[in-house]
């Protein structure tokens, strides 16, 4: 079964062709980072315009890449077409969803609208098809931070979610405040290696209702206050290219901030283990590219006898291969979505 999938939930225009749910024949991503860097974050209207300009070129490149392996593949070879329905930016979602629905309608193919978060969950199995279930699956990115229980891959159960900022959003916002560049996560990770992660103690959130949810707005505010009260001045992004010249108090702040965010993520997984017995721990989403998170999660849970699985970096950031993988599970079961299905920027995992 060949599935073409399109992902346009935020600031990447992506297309992929997946065979039988596991073999990636092509995966093309057009990033918009350069467009949004001057603003220190994603501008929704600009993102939508970029998707409109890029989507046809990305899909064409996707077919070219798939055909470069000696087996020509065209639209008529497809068995289904899928696209991200949500969550995400409404304008961005509509571009990919409308393109995919139109193509499926014209070709009389099944159309599948995919939850972006279920795509992230499925990305682990593109890299590790034999990862054991049941599992706890942490999806952590710029827009989402949630923990799911997977008894079956197609039926994730949400155990916890962020009540405010996502982990990646908290990283980006501090980086923007300090003027060290966008996206903030990779910059903070690089500079944090030079700082002391124990220099500053940031409090972990506590809820009066004893919720197991995540919250990152408090730690973000604490970090900003620390910078202000200790005279840590905003930098010029150019200075980041010479980290050895940056002040130690800035590097310690970044290292401690990153460490505290990871502390909370690991605590969230630990709380999940109090509720469910599992055979593995899984992580996905753009923030799961963070090497310190991967190292600490692997060390911590491997010591408890639980294997830890992350997909390779190209599958953790937004991509369409993961959307195709999630769509395949439904297509294999004979499912399809109606033509009038619409984008949902606040879509939850059922």
Compose a concise summary of this entry.
The protein is an alpha/beta fold and 350 residues long. The chain is 42% helix and 17% strand.
Explain the overall architecture:
By secondary structure, this protein is α/β, with parallel strands linked by helices. It has eleven helices and ten strands. It has a five-stranded mixed sheet with strand order 3-2-1-4-5, sandwiched between helices. A hairpin with a 5-residue loop joins strand 7 and strand 8.
Radius of gyration: 20 Å
* Secondary-structure element string: EEEHHEHEHEEEHHHHEHEHH
Main beta sheet: strand number and arrangement?
5 strands, mixed
The coarse overall form would be globular
- How large is the share of residues in beta strands? 15-25%
CATH homologous superfamily designation of the largest domain: ATPase, nucleotide binding domain
Per CATH, the architecture of the largest domain is 2-Layer Sandwich
Total domain units = 2
How confident is the prediction overall: mean pLDDT? 94
State the helicity in percent bands: 40-55%
Top CATH class of the largest domain: Alpha Beta
- The CATH topology assignment of the largest domain is Nucleotidyltransferase, domain 5
Low-confidence stretches: none
What is the spatial order of strands in the main beta sheet? Answer: 3-2-1-4-5
Count the strands?
A: 10
Determine the N-to-C terminus distance. Answer: 26 Å
What structural category do the secondary elements indicate? Answer: alpha/beta
């Amino acid at each position: 079964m060949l599935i073409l999938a399109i992902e346009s939930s935020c600031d990447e225009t992506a297309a992929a062709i997946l065979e039988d749910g596991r073999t990636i024949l092509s995966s093309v991503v057009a990033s918009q980072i350069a467009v949004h860097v001057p603003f220190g974050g994603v501008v929704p209207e600009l993102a939508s315009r970029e998707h409109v300009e890029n989507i046809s070129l990305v899909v064409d490149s996707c077919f070219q890449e798939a055909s470069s392996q000696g087996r020509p593949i065209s639209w008529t070879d497809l068995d289904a077409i899928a696209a991200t329905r949500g969550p995400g930016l409404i304008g961005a979602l509509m571009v990919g969803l409308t393109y995919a629905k139109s193509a499926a309608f014209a070709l009389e193919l099944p159309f599948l609208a995919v939850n972006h978060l279920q795509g992230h969950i499925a990305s682990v199995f593109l890299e590790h098809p034999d990862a054991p279930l049941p599992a706890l699956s942490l999806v952590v990115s710029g827009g989402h931070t949630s923990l799911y229980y997977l008894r079956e891959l197609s039926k994730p159960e949400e155990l916890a979610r962020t009540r405010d900022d996502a982990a990646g959003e908290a990283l980006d916002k501090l980086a923007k405040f300090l003027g060290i560049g966008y996206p903030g996560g990779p910059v903070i990770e690089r500079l944090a290696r030079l700082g002391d992660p124990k220099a500053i103690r940031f409090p972990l959130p506590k809820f009066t209702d004893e919720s197991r949810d995540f919250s990152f707005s408090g730690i973000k505010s604490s970090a900003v206050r620390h910078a202000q009260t200790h005279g840590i001045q905003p930098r010029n992004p150019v200075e980041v290219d010479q980290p050895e010249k940056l002040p130690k108090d800035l590097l310690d702040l970044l290292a401690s901030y990153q460490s505290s965010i990871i502390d909370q993520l690991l605590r969230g997984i630990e709380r999940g283990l109090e509720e469910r017995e599992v055979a593995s721990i899984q992580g996905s989403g753009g923030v799961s590219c963070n090497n310190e998170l991967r190292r600490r999660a692997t060390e911590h849970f491997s010591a408890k006898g639980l294997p830890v699985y992350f997909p390779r970096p190209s599958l953790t950031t937004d991509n369409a291969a993961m959307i195709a993988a999630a769509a395949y599970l439904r297509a294999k079961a004979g499912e399809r979505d109606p033509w009038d299905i619409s984008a949902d920027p606040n879509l939850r995992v059922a």
